[in-house]
Design a protein that fits this description.
heterodimer; A: mainly alpha; two-stranded antiparallel ribbon; 11 helices; 7 strands; B: Alpha-Beta Plaits; 3-stranded antiparallel beta sheet; 5 strands
Chain lengths: 364, 179
């Protein structure tokens, strides 16, 4: 009994720490990656006893600085909602990762431990529910600041969220049709199949390429970061957090990073085969040219969890590349892209997927 | 716009490929640098406090008062610089010079660098070539306005910059820097 509770806590703790640390580390990744992309070196001055470690202490220095800043609240701001908004924003960013599987079932001491914080039959819907709820924090911040620019930012965030969420929801319909489940673990297991004579893994990227492009674009829009940063819009309105200072502003930045991790995790689970490694089954490698390599169960699980982490990191890298490459969209351009570009494309994808499934038999 | 430009995706992918190319090329150079190839540089930027770009010899930097051979200021307190200064940042109090050959001597010669615009008119106006702006010192700062006022003693102690434009004397820190 106590062991069961401990296992549940362990699963939740793993996901929690993974997302939190990734989110914290992304501040460093963003600085360093953008610097190297732009032929610079990036923040490298924070040091402890002369030790710099490539600027890895900068997130700690930032956190200390933000925590010791004055916590300012405008006189006319709504006291309760102004205080609540950053917590709502961060909370839903943190819990959204819960139903994303980071590994297959772990068999330990006659127990079967699903490597997933929560085993949900509607895992896909849960992630989107949490991501959409995250925008409430942004809207609360915009409204309660008693600042028209903040209000504009909040409204833009809501409009952007609707136009991107619809495209996200419609684009993963194709994935759900192919793998026949709303359970994230089942979708990942479905991607462990192969086609073309066992050579090519049936990852979502290959079975649903159009959905992948639409999902990634809309997912980047859902994180509210450039090129879809019109809720923030540094160059025109400062955005929904214009009146926030100290760690509360830091929490809004943090929630952007958390959403990036969640979208990267979603993309990995739905399109990049989650924890799947090509030709790695539960008992070892089965290569299509006939060779096999038997591996112990624990090593297989560790490899799979490692593969998931690597894939998520690659997706985060790609999203950072996009964020530091493309110029930002204007508000109306983003709306047009969402409603007239991504949404019809995802509907087209559903129709195409349905037609292919109807013509070529059973779901893969 | 051509057709493929109207589809934003193609152009976006081209841009991402370009920046990703920069990332991996620079990353390779950083790794080579860390492994001992010190000529490989992943960045084109100058790492400022350690590295500096060469300064032009004509660059106007922190002022200094030129000394006579006995160490007293060459300045004769004629007030030309104080008069010409557009920022009105020079304050001179004149006194008698013990040598009757020399007309006057500044008892005080303060420059408020918080006001100075570094136009160099004081250098041009000086009939005695007693003030110059060739120390090469750029990094003077203070926590207060009062700390930006540099006195005669400080300005007299400065040396001209070396041939490479580097400052020859350390950055002077006024005693009342934190006032």
């Amino acid at each position: 009994m106590i062991l069961d509770v401990g296992i549940v806590f362990g699963r939740v703790l793993f996901v929690m720490l993974f997302v939190l640390n990734m989110g914290g580390l992304l501040g460093w990744v963003e600085r360093k990656q953008s610097a190297i992309m732009q032929d610079r070196i990036g923040a490298n001055r924070a040091s402890i006893f002369g030790l710099r470690v490539m600027g890895l202490f900068h997130p700690i220095a930032d956190a200390i600085k933000l925590l010791t800043k004055e916590d300012f609240r405008p006189a006319r701001a709504d006291r309760f909602l102004f205080w609540l908004a950053p917590f709502v924003s961060v909370f839903f960013g943190l819990v959204a990762f819960a139903s994303i599987p980071f590994g297959d079932t772990l068999r330990l001491w006659d127990r079967e431990i699903p490597l997933q914080a929560v085993t949900l039959n509607v895992g896909v819907l849960y992630v989107f529910a949490m991501l959409s709820l995250g925008v409430y924090g942004v809207m609360m911040a915009g409204w309660s600041s008693a600042n028209n620019y903040a209000l504009l930012g909040g409204q833009r965030a809501a409009a952007l969220m609707i136009s991107s969420e619809i495209a996200i929801g419609a684009s993963i319909m194709g994935v759900i049709m192919v793998y026949g489940s709303l359970n994230m673990q089942d979708i990942v297991r479905g991607q462990g199949q192969y086609f073309l004579g066992g050579w090519v893994p049936a990852w979502g990227l290959l079975t649903q390429p159009l959905a992948f492009v639409v999902f990634l674009t809309a997912g980047i829009a859902a994180t509210k970061r450039a090129p879809f940063d019109m809720p923030e819009g540094e160059s025109e309105i400062i955005g929904y957090f214009v009146e926030y200072s100290g760690m509360k502003a830091g929490m809004f930045m943090m929630s952007d990073f958390l959403e990036t991790v969640v979208i990267a995790g979603m993309t990995t689970a739905l399109f990049l085969g989650g924890w799947q490694i090509p030709w790695l089954a539960a008992d070892g490698f089965h290569f299509p040219w006939g060779a096999t390599a038997t591996l112990p169960h624990l090593l297989v699980v560790v490899l799979q969890v490692g593969a998931f982490v690597v894939k998520v990191s690659i997706m985060i890298f790609v999203m950072m590349l996009v964020r530091w490459t493309l110029p930002r969209f204007r508000y109306d351009q983003a709306m047009r892209l969402g409603w007239l570009g991504l949404f019809p494309l995802s509907i087209l994808n559903i129709v195409l997927t349905g037609a292919v499934l109807l013509l070529f038999g059973e779901p893969a | 716009m051509r057709l493929e430009q109207r589809f934003y995706l193609v152009e976006a992918v081209q841009g991402v490929v370009l920046t990703a190319g920069h990332f991996f090329r620079n990353m390779g150079k950083h790794v080579a640098h860390a492994l001992g190839r010190k000529d490989a540089r992943g960045a084109v930027t100058i790492q400022y406090p350690e590295e500096r770009r060469p300064y032009s010899p004509r660059l106007r930097t922190l002022h200094r008062l030129v000394r006579r051979e006995d160490g007293s200021p060459r300045c004769v307190a004629c007030m030309m610089c104080e008069t010409v200064c557009p920022a009105r940042c020079i304050y001179i109090v004149a006194t008698e010079h013990p040598n009757p050959e020399i007309e006057k001597l500044p008892e005080r010669f303060d420059i408020d660098l918080g006001k100075c615009v570094f136009c160099g008119y004081c250098v041009e106006a000086c009939p005695e070539d007693a003030i110059r702006m060739d120390t090469g010192i750029l990094e003077f700062s203070s926590y207060s306005r009062r700390g930006m006022v540099y006195t005669k003693e400080t300005l007299l102690s400065l040396e001209p910059a070396g041939a490479d434009g580097r400052p020859a004397s350390p950055v002077p820190i006024p005693a009342n820097r934190t006032v």
